[in-house]
Design brief:
Number of helices: 4
Helix content: 55-70%
Strand content: 15-25%
CATH architecture: 2-Layer Sandwich
Number of strands: 3
Number of domains: 1
CATH class: Alpha Beta
Structural class: alpha+beta
Shape: globular
CATH topology: GMP Synthetase, Chain A, domain 3
Largest sheet: 3 strands, mixed
Radius of gyration: 16 Å
């Protein structure tokens, strides 16, 4: 898949530009390519509340989609950050629902 290769090149260039020693792992998740960055000190890559990670994902998708009508949305993650955040929000929702039913 050409867009995976292009996305991988873009992500690697960003990581190199930031001076991060990290590796990219690619897998399919829910029909979309997931690029999970693994390494140390990835806080810079994630940013405050995941904003830098979101911006990087947007940039990679914009470049990979250019001239590619078959482009599928690419997900960019760092050390499973997105899954941890999803789990945290789900746990909060459950606690709030329990609290609401107790009152």
């Amino acid at each position: 898949m050409e867009h995976k290769t292009k996305a991988e090149e873009i992500l690697q260039a960003i990581l190199d530009g930031l001076g991060l020693k990290a590796e990219l792992q690619v897998e399919e998740r829910e029909g979309a390519p997931l690029f999970n960055v693994r390494g140390e000190d990835l806080g810079l890559l994630i940013g405050r509340q995941g904003q830098t990670l979101d911006a990087m994902q947007c940039l990679v998708n914009a470049v990979a989609a250019r001239g590619n009508p078959d482009h599928r949305q690419i997900i960019v993650d760092a050390e499973g950050y997105r899954e941890r955040q999803k789990r945290s929000v789900e746990e909060l929702a459950i606690r709030m629902a329990q609290k609401a039913t107790e009152e």
